[in-house]
Amino acid sequence: MGPQPQDTLMELGKRYGNVLSFRMGSQLAIVLNDYEAIKAAFSEQADVFAGRGGGFVSRYIRSGSTGKTHGVGAPQGNTWKEGRKFMLQTFRDLGMGKSHLQESIIAEANCIADSFINFNGQPFDPSPFLFSGAGNVIGSLCFGKRFEYEDPSFRRILAGLGQANVFKAHVQPLQSYPWLRFLPGRYRKLWHTVKDTSQYLLLFLRNIIEEHRKNYQETKTRDYIDAFFHRQREAGTTSTEVFQDEELLQNLRGFFTAGTDTTAITMRWVLLFMLHHPKIQDCVHNELDQKIEVGRRIVLEDRAKLPYLEAVIREVQRLANIIPLGLPRTNSTETILLGYRIPANSIVFPNFKSVNEDATLWNDPQTFDPTRFLDRNGKVHEPIHFMPFSIGKRACVGESLARMELFLLFANLMHRLVFKAPPDEVLPATNERITFLASGPKPFSICVFPRSY
Predict the structure, then answer these.
(1) Metal-binding: is it a keyword of this entry (predicted)?
(2) Are 430 and 272 in contact (CB under 8 A)?
(3) Which of 133, 274, 423, 439 is close enough to 108 for a disulfide, judged by CB 3.0 to 4.6 Å?
């Protein structure tokens, strides 16, 4: 299907309908190519399509020392449901929307801005700073720790995430045909990269968990790890599978990697779109100048004052399509979907790109136009077919944090800075991407200047 299968599948959908099937090795894959098909599966049959799909590599990454898949990313059963419920409740208790989490995000926004300014208007790659900032926000919530951007261990972890985004483009054959890892050549090398990256991250997280265990106090809840320890102590020897150490490790891995990756990649897209659309950047600056005092940091309470800025974020999410084929689901039982028989345990892909570029849902869908997310009164409006965090039982567990983070990062960076394209470089087009999973733009440089009010 080529390097961008979502495009091929979108075109096939126009010819053959909104539900397609094909074989991935021995397994049947189903593609949902429009909003009605995605809604029919993930909302109207939410319990049936609540399994998490994935091939050999995905199972390896999510498995613990026992070889069993762990964490909220587990494919089936009740463990992921209980773990997800606990994670959502813990994040709410820890401050999803509360002041200290907001302070953490604003502090990272200022660190990123200061790092950008240090280049004195010269071209540079913004990616490392965006990944560091996003990683620290997730880190503060998960394990109560902030890393300096130059910390060697932290940089290696973030470099590993960057590597992962590259090998995701080539890993699909290994998902379906794991025996390829034994053959000399690219897939053996790729497999060793996957293993090394995964094992280093797990070692990094195990060390953090052990550090917490040494300093643990029953009366304090600093972060998700402490909350998990509390629940383990409450359960004692009757602790369920949900609160075993392997579950903690894999939940940290999943949330840290996904939260860092998706936020940083979305912010890369935001900056690239601002470089391509300087007039829209001017509109964001004008709204900030009219609604926010000079020099004041922007907080969550300012959201209602900045509808255009919020609309820009949503329009970037629509066109960037950072996970255009979603995270695959599976159906626990055979079912009928829009007249089609779907055998049990099929892999189901929602083609979000097809929805986000559907001309029956969006006027002139290829055009970058933030005003499509504003109603007649100038307030933010999200149509039901806009699904940047998916829908159903496996919708993104970090949606509230991601929305909060994107707003505070983008607003505070825009309030302080002007972004310009390097005069002697050609920017990648906004429809060019590296891979079809956690898909970032092609590398680009940026010139940054402090705003002069």
Answers:
(1) yes
(2) yes
(3) 133
Q: Tens of pLDDT along 235-274?
A: 765 556 778 888 899 889 988 988 999 999 999 999 999 9
- Cα–Cα distance, 78 to 67 (Å, whole number): 18
Give the structural domain span for 90.
5-450
Give the pLDDT score at 244.
85
Dihedral-angle region of residue 42 (phi above 0 means left; psi in -120 to 50 means alpha; beta otherwise):
alpha
Q: Is 334 helix (H, G, I), strand (E, B) or coil?
A: coil
Number of H helices, E strands in the chain: 15, 9
Cα–Cα distance for residue pair 155/149, rounded to 1 Å: 7
Cα–Cα distance between 135 and 261 in angstroms, integer? 8
How many of the other CB atoms lie within 10 Å of CB of 247? Answer: 25
Distance CA 146, CA 368 (A): 36
Q: Residue 321's closest CA among 383, 406, 390? A: 390
Q: Is 447 annotated as a binding residue?
A: no
* Contacts of 335-342 spanning 24+ positions with Cβ under 8 A: 335/45, 335/48, 337/19, 337/30, 337/37, 337/40, 337/41, 337/45, 338/18, 338/19, 338/36, 338/37, 338/40, 340/19, 340/21, 342/30
Closest of 326, 315, 273, 357 to residue 437, by C-alpha: 326
* H or E element at residue 347: strand 347-350
Residue 453 pLDDT exceeds 90: no
CATH code (residue 220)? 1.10.630.10
Taking CA atoms, 435 is separated from 98, 260, 265, 303, 309, in Å, by 35, 17, 12, 32, 27
Q: Are 417 and 113 in contact, with CB atoms under 8 Å apart?
A: yes
Query: How many structural domains comprise the chain?
Result: 1
| CA-CA-CA-CA dihedral for 14, 15, 20, 22, to nearest 10 | -130
- How open is the CA angle 372-378-381, to the nearest 5 degrees? 50
Phi first, then psi: what are they for 80, rounded to 5°?
-65, -35
For 96-154, list the strands marked E by DSSP: none
